[in-house]
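Figure 2 data, in text form.
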Amino acid sequence: MGLLAPLYSAYARVLDKRLRRIGVLPRHVGVILDGNRRWARATGSHATHGHRRGADKITEFIEWSDDIGVDVVTLWMLSTDNLHREDQELAPLFEIIGEAVDALAADGRWRLQLVGALDLLPAEVADRLRQAEQATTKNTGIHVNVAVGYGGRQEIVDAVRASLHHGIKEGASLHDVARDFSVEHVTEHLYTKGQPDPDLVIRTSGEQRLSGFLMWQSAHSEFYFCEAYWPAFRHIDFLRALRSYAQRERRRGR
């Protein structure tokens, strides 16, 4: 930002005060961390460098969220579609994600929860992520959902399957389970069960679609699409997203 940095900092402080005064803030913010590779191309860097810069941004974002009073953050770090990329890109990406999640766990402030189909990941990667998650179970700070190997369709399939298995395990017939099946049965078996649905979903990089992110939970979410690539996402961009959220009338289908 150069010479503009002091102006952005001053503007951020003003906007932050206004948001706190208004008091209309989301409890749960979901983020699609998009644009790492395009940021790398735009800066003449290798894709791996873009992923590393994106990983470096995560702690900042959680700190911003924690400071403003957000309770839950869901970070979509790797989709099921991403798993179809070439091995030469996936191998360093798995390592970067592992390092980022290890760092979040070592920080000691936040509770991590993995959301995604970990069985689709290499076993050593899944084990590393589970160990980091387990290390944070007693932390009382902001709740951070780490979405790795995540796909919205896969989540719904997993929730339906788990609900059917639960009903049959309880002694019901498949016919009875199907007859009584409801929205609540899916909700009770989502990766994010027990959490508030996201009030605000942010996607960086200018793409204006959800790509399956929290498909079930985002039925009444507000969406904010930011032009900045994720590695270049700034505090002022976050505050602008919150301002946009605060200015909307949330009708929730009414």
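Caption note: The chain has one domain: 26-153+197-246.
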